[in-house]
Amino acid sequence: MNTSSKQNKSFYEATHRFNLWIGAVRSGKTFASIRKLLQLLEFGPPGDAMIIGVNRDTIQRNILTTLYNMLGFPCPSPSVRKTRLFGRDVYFVGAPDVSAVSTIQGSTLAIAYVDEATNIPEPFWKMLETRLSVPGAQLLATANPGAPAHWLKKQYIDRADIHDLIYWNFHLDDNPILDKAYKDAITSSFTGVWHKRFILGEWCQASGAIYDNWDNDNVYVNPFPAPSYYLVGIDYGTTNATAAVLAAISPNQWPQVRIEAEYYYDSQKVGRSKTDAELVRDIKDFIGYKNVSSIYVDPAAASFKIALRAEDLPVIDANNEVILGIKTVNKFISGKNIVVQKGCKILIEQLQSYAWCPKHAERGEDAPIKKEDHLCDSLRYCLTPFMRSGEFSHPDENLSAEQLRRKIYGYDAISQFNEQIQGY
Ligand SMILES: Nc1ncnc2c1ncn2[C@@H]1O[C@H](COP(=O)(O)OP(=O)(O)OP(=O)(O)O)[C@@H](O)[C@H]1O
Ligand SMILES: [Mg+2]
Q1: Quick one: DSSP state of residue 157?
Q2: Topology of 216-386 in CATH?
Q3: Which atom of ligand 1 is closest in space to residue 31's alpha carbon?
Q4: Ligand 1 atom closest to Cα of residue 3
Q5: Which of 57, 229, 256, 421 is the most buried (most CB within 10 A)?
């Protein structure tokens, strides 16, 4: 097997209680750590093993496919929660939030493997630590770096000596199978704080402007051809502003998303709150006769959603995972795959002043400053869900803007075009 020297080094040095493979995406961390996991499953201390990920799906995608590929037999189905390997019980546990702690209370483990450790809640990790009570028990984990004040960095990596902990920093060059073209593409597909963490492998604070790649190329003036359909995102407030964006979606054109109009009603500025009925009327006027396929609404806006539904509007609860939403919007902005009509002045202003919160950063968390960000939320609401449809690049899919163009137009079309323009 052709493995890099960093992968070999980590394999031989991983004899500690905590063993952490940290660094860039696609840098070969999982590959190296799973080799170690297989060795431990076969020869490690007797007792149960547990494989932990953010949820059961990510365990399947990130770990089990590689693990069973190395073993040479078929992967268990995604619904399986327990299996036997080398004569020991192996449990698969998703730890999406703190409530998962109760699922491992009471178990006794010899081996634990944690995928994406920076996304696991700290109480879960602490509980896991107490479960590793078999003599010689070992924990293996992989992670992309997060904020410098993240609990994994501050309490474990920075105090490696008291924890019997070892870690290795992985970079793209530590994966022997990546060629230069792929490394270049992946490098250009992350910007800002994500570039530092996911490409350079640094623990760095999310600070300053969130959409720091926003520029004039994200603004348009002249009308475009009609889109395939429209989406609307609405952030609702009674004391705060109610804000909406009208997004024209064209999966087969570039840019795929353009924001044609904004709606903003700030009750504090006007000095009067509007009733739900008044706001629904405003939204209906805002949409007009456009072909709106879905209206994504702030999930907390219960009464307003009922009022919209009563008018037969296609209302859907928005996904309120803030970081996923920000990553999604950022991907569109930096790839220049979203353009905003010049007249959407408040949206443009809010996108430019949207900033990371220093107070959260001190606690090792990523969060935006909560102020005047209602149109940023509306945009996030309408962009997050349809990412999964496959016509668009998922924020975790490592495609550069150029690769994304190819995905949309097809490789041949671009090559033909390039051939045609050569010589002109
Ligand atoms: N030595 C190797 N031989 C063959 N394939 C490898 C080797 N190292 C890594 N790979 C392959 O390269 C790809 C990326 O590696 P891997 O999944 O280990 O990266 P990672 O650092 O865990 O990335 P992420 O942070 O995205 O999870 C995988 O398809 C993996 O199977
Ligand atoms: Mg991995």
Answers
A1: G
A2: Nucleotidyltransferase; domain 5 (3.30.420)
A3: 18
A4: 1
A5: 256
C-alpha 103 to ligand 2 mean position (Å): 24
pLDDT for the residue numbered 418: 59
* Cα 31 to ligand 1 centre (Å): 5
* Contact assessment for residue 252 and residue 228, using Cβ atoms and an 8 Å cutoff: yes
Local structure of residue 179 (DSSP, 8 states): -
Mutate-to-test residue for ligand 1 from 22, 31, 37, highest number of ligand atoms within 8 A of CB:
31
Question: How far is residue 113 CA from its own chain's centroid?
Answer: 21
Atom of ligand 1 nearest to the CA of 170: 21
Give DSSP secondary structure letters for 207-227: -SBTTTT--GGGEE-SPPPP-
Amino acid residing at 113: Y
330 lines ligand 1 (CB under 6 A): no
**With 0-12 CB in 10 A as exposed, 13-18 as middle and 19+ as buried, what is 218?**
buried
Closest ligand 1 atom number to CA of residue 178? 12
List the structure tokens of 310.
Answer: 């009563």
Distance 10 CA to ligand 1 centre (A): 14
Backbone phi, then psi, for 351, in 5-degree steps? -65, -35
Mean pLDDT by 10 residues, the chain (424 residues): 93 97 96 97 96 92 94 93 95 86 87 95 94 96 96 96 95 95 88 92 94 95 93 93 96 91 94 94 96 94 96 94 91 92 97 95 92 94 76 73 73 57 53
> 5-179 with 216-386: one CATH topology?
no
- For the domain bounded by 5-179, which CATH number is listed? 3.40.50.300
Its pTM stands at 0.85
With a 6 Å cutoff on the Cβ, whether 300 touches ligand 1 is no
Distance from C-alpha of 112 to C-alpha of 59, rounded to nearest angstrom: 13
Name the residue of 20, 30, 67 to mutate for ligand 1: max ligand atoms within 8 A of Cβ: 30
Q: What pLDDT is recorded for position 411?
A: 56
What are the domain boundaries of the chain?
5-179, 216-386
Q: In this structure, what DSSP letter does residue 145 have?
A: -
Q: How high is the pLDDT of residue 401? A: 75
